[in-house]
UniProtKB/TrEMBL annotation, chain B:
SMART domains on file: Molybdop_Fe4S4
Organism: Promicromonospora vindobonensis
Alphabetized NCBIfam families for the sequence: narG
Compartment(s) of residence: Cell membrane
Biased composition (Low complexity): 454-463
Listed name of the protein: nitrate reductase (quinone)
Stretch list, region Disordered: 454-477
Biased composition regions of type Gly residues, renumbered to the chain: 465-477
4Fe-4S Mo/W bis-MGD-type domain boundaries: 45-109
KW 4Fe-4S (keyword) present: yes
Keywords: 4Fe-4S, Cell membrane, Electron transport, Iron, Iron-sulfur, Membrane, Metal-binding, Molybdenum, Nitrate assimilation, Oxidoreductase, Transport
Reactions the enzyme catalyzes: nitrate + a quinol = a quinone + nitrite + H2O
Family according to the record: Belongs to the prokaryotic molybdopterin-containing oxidoreductase family.
Main location: membrane
Length: 457, 1270
């Protein structure tokens, strides 16, 4: 056992309002400068939708992450290191600026400086890359809130892989938001892709960084990252990425995106894991087993054996305390309501998500039974507006069972707490039906609903 | 393998690190030594607390980071005081728009210097060079038609040139002085909304305008955010729960309120409350953002929400108050609503209802003590204010005047009786409940309906199109339903109760009553779930289920059912009726005044918590009273000449059972009537300079009021509203700050450009034909253009308003000044603080107004001196004025104005003479005047005597050493004003709160002061709120209680302490009996569909019938007619932030119109193509966003889409495309103009015609994709 510590995040998508405050505060703090105009370390995408950069989840096209070889080993999907070395001067497989978006500004100064003329002055858009007038045809968040759904939605890589057809009809509409930062993976394919050794994972907290002095701009990391969360600064010629705000983390502050999240849906914390088991976990044969495999890599911070091993690795006492207090362990391993994003990329990502509940489909169109009555809710989970298969395509390599389990637990919590709210005797059966006790439900409720600052971070 | 791994192995040597055995992972010790690049970026010199004075209800506290004297970015503060251990906290309040604010500081749209329109500046300089002093120069250039025309035509076409502050301020000052002297101070106007968002910045300009004698324009009603239903039902402007109280709701309906977008900082309380088992229902025509969180989604046709609410009420009344009497609901209705009060039934008017309704009655006026003799109502003859003491029946059948009515509120006799203590009285909810020696009789009442196809007066449900059905081409026709109520005779009057009338109105049958009743929920007779389904498209069973659940939850949770209601349902012409139907739900289920229950209206409603101190300062009430405060909608309607295009016959809105008061009159005529009666304010008031009126009165030896009456009777003096196109009546100088009226709220934007400003516009409408012109207004053949001589705007960025302004003054941003902020969403007051000094030549609003004031004072010595001013003041709410019109009955409605017995304060505004010491103007601006302690302060009828506070302010701020304000507390710094506002309000000064409560205790005879006594010693200072958001003190200025750390919820004090509402009965009103409400048929909650604009205005395009789906696929048409809605945007707060590069990069980068795939296909438009939306009022150019979340037949252009960013030239006009309000126009609803009576009495931003804009329709076409910008 080699105990290491990983700073990790869980986002509760059931609380995300899609406001993008996280994107803006992150952008302001980190990438509001030339060369990174198009770069959003943190972005929020509407699902269904194409994401940023467009269709990044389609690894048939973008070749990110790992694949398992016939011999049960992992190799980079984009090709082994020899191939990389051989093609090092060729353009790597990476999205073009158009797949992100061409950043622009406006001729704002015309509003003040326009001479007397025939028309009201206006600020026209102008490319930040070419300096020329431009037509805006894509942005960092073009399909926000299903904008242009008829033109783009069916190209969503998740939808394309679903067996069920999702129609663009008002009555069938569903959407939710997926805020994304770097996953700070346990098995980062970007690091493995870097020919310069400039990318590394910090030993003490697992944060994945690009050494700005060592980066030679090969951009293999961009190809390697299946989440497309490494960016190329076209001014400095270096790769840049989310740093998990390490200058803040180091002094005990949450990341900017976490602290400024007005949905209060982000949790930060340390997780202890067994570094010796990472390769094995990432290489399990069945993609559906990746979730369990990764959970098994995590170490119970209250286990005396783990604590002893951690101490012997030189992990400081206060870090062990932090791991014990971490909400991440509880959400992932105790309550099992958080799931990883695209485990099938085999990078063992460390930003996990609680999938969103959603209303049942039929109320708009017909009279409907009360599918959301807590008593009948379990039966209705399969009729939720967001197809289980879609969520499974994001979080469980297509296996709907873990997603359904999470949603049932959230629903059970609502049912249980409604009785408490109304002063009735709480219904232990509701908790038992999802494999929890009433006490556990109430603890989970406090973490998810009351969610005080000190409990989130 | 080995060779493949060489690469990463090599990397090992570049830096000390550890590589995993399989060489896939490289671990490096980070530590403080590594990666200084990002650590350097995350460093700053200081963090300053400030906030955003933008017109949202956020009032979020922010950390502003400064490095090397430059603002770098901002993040939210997280140090709000705790909500308590069992609730989520407020932190971190803020949204992406606020997070993007610092971009403005150094952006290229920042106004850095003063600018003046070139053509004007040249003319002014030329006039000055000829030896004129500034005032003479201004007089000369504005009097010269060629010069004036030249600079007015140049408005909005570029050509702004830099000027010095000195010169720009001189021009502005000269324009004010000249206008006051020549035309009158009420021709000077100021517009700046929402004081709560920055009280000092608002207050300093308002004070400037008021001390000059100018006109401050209202905004809440003008924005259509004021729910007129609130004063109608509650007698209150709006009072709502804070967002943390959503957490306490067990059932939450978000109705036309897209909480994640419009209440971003607070939305988490909604998402989190679901985990407590709260059930969430969303009512929205599109898949709005909040639908994601809903347990149920109802999608009614836009604007039909009232029908849905009535049907839900039908179910609740049927199941919870008729089939069984839910004890809680019954008790609540008896004590806190007008339900048990008696209404007189009058014979149905023969003329309108026809013989068909012979023998039927219509609901008339409340029965009051004045209607009853002593033998019927013992002591009636001795009652004070008997006309304002409505009567109910005790359960033993005796008529009783309960405590707490309006009549108890004023006068010595009833001191201590203005309360809701029923004593031994057990009110009979229904006539049938009261003991009676005779068997209960029944009568049939005729009730209006407005949901039928025009021309089908009977409203037969089996007509060619079902009533009001979505498939009908036209809606809004009138009909009558006849239903029975139990009745009794009391003192010779045939009466029934409001509750009985409610059951009739809602179609809830009881055995033995005559009339037409629905057979059940499936019967589409008015009021039922099936009826609403035909109108709204919401399945009947769903409507019934949600209604039932709402009520059952109220039973189960003790009233914790809440409706968050928003602009989606509030910006309609008939929103007052929609909202009354909502409020009926929360009242009949006993949810109002309960934490976690009741209405939660969040539209433009920002609570200036320290309201009393702000009002003293902003109103200039410390020096001169009363202020001139004007209903904004009426001001703009007249000033922009939209009235010339309107001509809407008022009787098209009237009830089929109307007595006929509106016959032959337009809605504009009702405005004239309302102004003449003093129901609503009217500035400019007369067609004469009010300074001259004062001089004339003096010369004639008459009192000003007598003189005004003499002149009016003689026909020598007229109200300006009668002739708004007379140059004597133009508003001449307008100052706009903290606002963007021309890019945002200006309904009928193109009319502003055409008539108010006199520049190019895209008005396509024709003026009214002679048969539709207002009969009480003078029609001048030539419509004026360019009424305004000077438009001054202070802003930090370029907007449509600055683009069209004559003088643009560079303002400090919110990160560059001191100020105060509060909101209704949280109970805190907190501070703005300068992170940097105002850069370039920018100045705070405070500094700018004071600079202009000093110039005015200097010029005034010669040009104005000390004058007297005749102020006409409307009949005011929360004063005895509200007893001016007994029963709301007009006895002289048919008498021509000049032939009436004109009595100021009765059927004429109050006429008050005040002194204007213009040379002392600047000195008075910057000191607290003597009236504050001398005359006291009054808020909502509660008096405060702040002698101690004024003395203490003198110690804190210092005293003025000399000059006209010598010895008074100084207000010459923004921080002084912050201290004054905090010191003079009960919410921030415990002594005043207790004092106010003690005042109320005397009136009500109920204990109240204990709510604040524990905090009597607290004085919240500016330093306190700079340090941290500071919770306020429970105060009689508001109706809720924060006592003991509870969440603020409106009307808690009324319910728990039996303090009456400020209404006629002292209770919440279902029933309104003012003549004009009777005329409109809106005595009770009633469904009124969206205006059928094509029927009312033939030049408005016709919505197609619902059959469009049957058209052949693949055929495209040139254009489609759609409903045009302007909901609030995710990427802006009004027009603020929509020009912000971050927001533009995260959205579509410019103006958009959202439309359904079906509508887009119909005109052959694909996503992101350019389209034009055109109607009689103007044109907008935008790109289409095609999305299946949109319902067919409706498009959205987000509210306050300005014309500054990426707007091409429109094909339709050949001009720059317009703003979202280029397609709208002002329409007046007479019920908003009713006044002089109980809760229907005027108060600033409390009551007034709304600038509704939801009923508009437009043509949308695909335009050439080759756009040009010049």
């Amino acid at each position: 056992m080699k105990v290491m510590a990983q700073m990790s995040m869980v986002m509760n998508l059931d609380k995300c309002i899609g406001c993008h405050t996280c994107s803006v505060t992150c952008k302001q703090a980190w990438t509001n400068r030339s060369g990174t105009e198009y770069v959003w370390f943190n972005n929020v995408e509407t699902r269904p939708g194409l994401g940023y950069p467009r269709t990044y989840q389609d690894q048939d096209t973008w070749q990110g992450g790992w694949v398992r070889t016939g011999r049960g080993k992992l190799k980079l999907r984009a090709g082994g290191r020899l191939k990389k070395l051989a093609t090092i001067f060729a353009n790597p497989k990476m999205p073009s600026i158009q797949d992100y978006y061409e950043p622009w500004t406006y001729e704002y100064d015309m509003l003040l400086s326009a001479p007397q003329g025939a028309h009201t002055p206006v600020a026209r858009p102008r490319s930040l890359l070419t300096g020329k007038d431009m037509n805006i045809e894509w942005s960092a968040n073009w399909d926000d809130n299903l904008a242009g759904s008829t033109a783009t939605m069916q190209d969503d890589p998740i939808l394309k892989h679903m067996s069920e057809h999702v129609a663009e009809e008002l009555e069938q509409t569903f959407m939710f938001y997926l805020p994304r930062i770097c996953e700070h993976c346990l098995n980062p394919s970007c690091v493995a892709s870097c020919p310069s050794g400039a990318m590394y994972k910090r030993t003490e907290d697992g944060i994945v960084l690009v050494d700005q002095e060592a980066c030679r701009g090969w951009r293999m990391c961009i190809t390697g990252c299946p989440y497309k969360k490494v960016y190329f600064n076209h001014k400095t010629g270096k790769a840049e990425k989310c740093t998990l705000c390490y200058p803040r983390i180091e002094v005990g502050l949450p990341t900017v995106c976490s602290e400024t999240c007005v949905g209060r849906l982000r949790y930060l914390g340390l997780v202890l894991y067994d570094a010796d088991r990472v390769s094995e976990a990432a290489a399990v044969e069945d993609e559906h087993d990746l979730l369990a495999a990764q959970r098994a890599v995590f170490l119970d911070p209250n286990d005396p054996e783990v604590i002893a091993a951690a101490r012997s690795e030189g992990i400081p006492e206060d870090w062990i305390d932090a791991a014990q207090a971490s909400p991440i362990w509880r959400l992932i391993n105790d309550y099992e309501v958080a799931l990883p994003l695209h485990p099938e990329y085999r990078t063992l990502p460390m930003v996990w998500y609680i999938p969103p509940l959603s209303p049942v489909v039929d109320v708009v169109a017909s009279s409907g039974n009360d599918g959301e009555d807590p008593r009948t809710l379990f039966a209705a989970i399969s009729q939720l507006r967001i197809p289980l298969e879609y969520l499974a395509g994001l979080f469980t390599a297509g296996d709907t069972r873990p997603v359904e389990k999470v949603l049932r637990r959230l629903a059970a919590m609502r049912s249980y707490m409604r009785d408490v709210n109304l002063g009735n005797a709480p219904n232990e059966d509701a908790a038992g039906a999802v494999g929890m006790t009433g006490t556990q439900i109430e603890e989970m409720y406090r973490l998810l609903a009351i969610a005080k600052y000190q409990d989130r971070y | 393998m080995a060779s493949e791994d060489a690469l990463i192995s090599l990397g090992r040597y570049l830096r000390r690190g550890e590589v995993s055995e399989d060489l896939r992972r490289l671990y490096l010790e980070g530590g403080r030594g590594g990666d200084s690049f990002y650590r350097d970026r995350w460093s700053h010199d200081k963090v300053v607390r400030s906030t955003h004075g933008v017109n949202c209800t956020g009032s979020c506290s922010w950390k502003v980071y400064v490095k090397d004297g430059i603002i770098t970015w901002e993040t939210q503060q997280t140090d709000y005081p705790s909500v308590g251990p069992d609730s989520p906290e407020y932190e971190p309040r803020g949204c992406p728009r606020g997070a993007a604010f610092s971009w403005y500081t150094y952006s290229p749209t920042r106004v850095r210097y003063p600018y003046v329109r070139g053509a004007l500046l040249e003319a002014y300089r030329a006039a000055r060079r000829q030896g004129n002093d500034p005032v003479e120069a201004w007089a000369e250039l504005t009097a010269d038609p060629v010069t004036a025309d030249a600079y007015k035509r140049a408005r909005g076409k570029g050509g702004l040139v830099r000027a010095s502050w000195e010169e720009a301020a001189e021009i502005v000052a000269a324009a004010h002085v000249h206008t006051i002297r020549k035309y009158g101070p009420d021709r000077v106007a100021g517009f700046s909304p929402i004081p709560a968002m920055s009280m000092v910045s608002h207050g300093v300009g308002a004070r400037f305008v008021q001390l000059l004698g100018g006109t401050m324009l209202s905004f809440y009603d003008w924005y259509a955010d004021l729910p007129v239903a609130s004063p109608q039902v509650f007698g209150d402007q709006t009072d709502v729960p804070e967002s943390a109280d959503w957490w306490n709701a067990a059932y939450l309906i978000m109705w036309g309120s897209n909480v994640p977008v419009t209440r971003t900082p607070d939305a988490h309380f909604m998402t989190e409350a679901r985990y407590r088992g709260q059930k969430v229902v969303v009512v929205s025509p599109d898949y709005a953002d909040n639908t994601k969180f809903a347990d149920a989604w109802l999608a009614p046709q836009p604007g039909t929400d009232g029908a849905l609410a009535l049907a839900m009420g039908h179910v609740i009344l049927r199941e919870y108050l008729v089939d069984q009497r839910t004890e809680r609901f019954e008790r609540y209705l008896k004590q806190y609503s007008d339900s048990p009060f008696l209404v007189r039934l009058e014979p149905a008017p023969r003329s309108s209802a026809g013989s068909e309704h012979a023998g039927t009655y219509v609901p008339g006026k409340f029965l009051t003590a004045a209607d009853l003799a002593d033998d019927v109502l013992p002591g009636a003859a001795d009652e004070a204010n008997p006309h304002f003491k409505p009567v109910l029946l005790d359960s033993d059948g005796r008529p009783v005047v309960p405590n707490g009515t309006l009549g108890h509120r004023y006068g010595e006799a009833d001191e201590g009786r203005w309360n809701l203590d029923l004593g031994d009285v057990d009110p009979a909810l229904s006539i049938a409940d009261a003991a009676s020696v005779e068997p209960v009789e029944a009568a049939t009442v005729a009730l209006p309906r407005f949901d039928v196809v025009p021309g089908d007066p009977a409203g037969r449900p089996d007509g060619p199109g079902s009533p009001g059905g979505t498939g009908d081409l036209h809606t809004g026709g009138k009909g009558v339903v006849v239903r029975g109520v139990p009745v009794r005779r009391v003192g010779g009057h045939l009466v029934t109760t409001v509750f009985d009338l409610m059951l009739a109105q809602y179609g809830v049958a009881r055995p033995g009553l005559p009339g037409e009743w629905p057979d059940g929920y499936d019967d589409p007779a008015p009021g039922t779930p099936a009826w609403q389904e035909e109108i709204t498209g919401v399945p009947a069973a769903a409507a019934a289920r949600i209604g039932r659940e709402f009520a059952q939850n109220a039973v189960d949770s003790g009233g914790r059912s809440m409706i968050i209601m928003g602009a989606g349902t509030n910006h309609w012409f008939h929103s007052d009726t929609i909202y009354r139907a909502f409020l009926a739900l929360t009242t009949m289920t006993g949810c109002q005044g309960v934490n976690g229950g009741g209405w939660a209206h969040y539209v433009g409603q920002e609570k200036c918590r320290p309201v009393t101190g702000w009002a003293q300062y902003a109103g200039g009430l410390d020096w001169v009273r009363p202020p001139r405060q004007m209903i904004g909608t009426a001001f703009w309607y007249l000033a922009t000449d939209q009235w010339r295009y309107d001509g809407l016959p008022a009787d098209t809105l009237a009830s089929p059972l109307a007595p006929g008061t509106f016959a032959g009159r337009t809605t504009a005529d009702t405005l004239v009537d309302s102004a003449q009666r003093g129901w609503m304010p009217s500035y400019p008031t007369f067609d004469r300079n009010p300074l001259d009126l004062a001089d004339e009165a003096r010369a004639a030896g008459r009192k000003p009021a007598e003189h005004v009456v003499d002149e009016l009777k003689a026909g020598r003096l007229r109200f300006a509203v009668e002739d708004p196109d007379d140059p004597a009546n133009f508003p001449r100088v307008l100052t706009v700050w903290r606002a963007n009226i021309l890019g945002s709220s200006g309904k009928g934007n193109e009319y502003f450009l055409k008539h108010l400003l006199g520049t190019d516009s895209a008005v396509f409408a024709e003026e009214s034909a002679p048969d539709r012109r207002p009969r009480s207004m003078t029609w001048r053949e030539e419509a004026p253009r360019g009424k305004l001589d000077l438009l001054v705007t202070m802003d930090f960025r370029m907007t449509s308003t600055t683009l069209f302004s004559d003088v643009v003054l560079p303002a400090a941003t919110w990160y560059e000044k001191h100020d105060l902020s509060s909101t209704d969403m949280h109970p805190f007051v907190h501070a703005f603080n300068p992170a940097i000094d105002p850069p370039w030549q920018t100045r705070t609003d405070f500094a700018a107004f004071h600079a202009i004031a000093r110039k005015i004072s200097a010029m005034a010595v010669h040009h104005l001196g000390v004058r007297h001013d005749v102020v006409a003041s409307p009949l005011a709410h929360d004063t005895p004025d509200e007893m001016a019109v007994p029963h709301g009955t007009l006895t002289d409605a048919d008498v021509p104005f000049r032939e009436r017995h004109l009595v100021p304060g009765s059927n004429l505004p109050k006429i008050v003479e005040v002194e204007r010491d213009y040379p002392a103007f600047a000195a008075r601006m910057s000191a607290l005047g003597p009236l504050t302690e001398g005359a006291g302060m009054v808020t909502k009828g509660v008096s405060f005597s702040p002698g101690d506070e004024v003395r203490r302010l003198g110690e804190i701020n210092g005293l003025v050493p000399d000059g006209p304000a010598a010895g008074r507390p100084r207000l010459d710094r923004d921080t002084h004003v912050c201290e004054a506002i905090l010191a003079l309000s009960g919410t921030t000064n415990g002594r005043l709160s207790v004092q106010g409560f003690e005042h109320l205790e005397r009136r009500t005879g109920r204990p109240l002061a204990d709510l604040a006594r524990g905090e009597e010693g607290r004085r919240i200072t500016f330093a306190d709120v700079q340090a941290r958001p500071t919770p306020v003190i429970t105060s009689p200025e508001w109706s809720g209680s924060e006592h003991g750390g509870r969440r603020y919820s409106a009307f808690v004090v009324n319910v728990e302490r039996l303090k009456p509402w400020h209404t006629l009965t002292g209770r919440q009103h279902f029933y309104l009996d003012h003549d004009w409400l009777v005329e409109l048929g809106e005595q009770l909650p009633v469904y009124r569909p969206p205006l059928d604009l094509h029927r009312l205005f033939p030049d408005s395009p016709a919505l197609r019938s619902g059959g469009s789906r049957t058209e052949q696929a693949g055929t495209t048409e040139a254009e489609v007619v759609v409903r045009y809605l302007t909901p609030h945007s995710k990427w802006s707060i009004h027009s603020e932030y929509q020009d912000n590069l971050f927001m533009l990069s995260l959205s579509r980068g410019g103006p958009n119109i959202w439309m359904s795939p079906a509508d887009a296909a119909r005109i052959g438009v694909v996503d992101n193509e350019w389209v034009e939306a055109v109607n009689r009022n103007g044109v907008v150019v935008a790109r289409a966003v095609v999305s299946h979340r949109m319902p067919e037949g409706t498009v959205y252009m987000h509210h306050a889409t300005d014309r500054t960013v990426d707007v091409p030239i429109a094909e339709a006009s050949g001009l720059r495309g317009g703003i979202h309000n280029s397609l709208t126009r002002i329409l007046l609803k007479p019920s908003h103009l009713a006044g002089g009576y109980a809760q229907l009495s005027y108060a600033f931003n409390y009551l007034g015609p709304t600038g509704n804009q939801r009923d508009e329709v437009t043509v949308v076409r695909r335009r050439s994709q080759e756009v040009r910008y010049s």
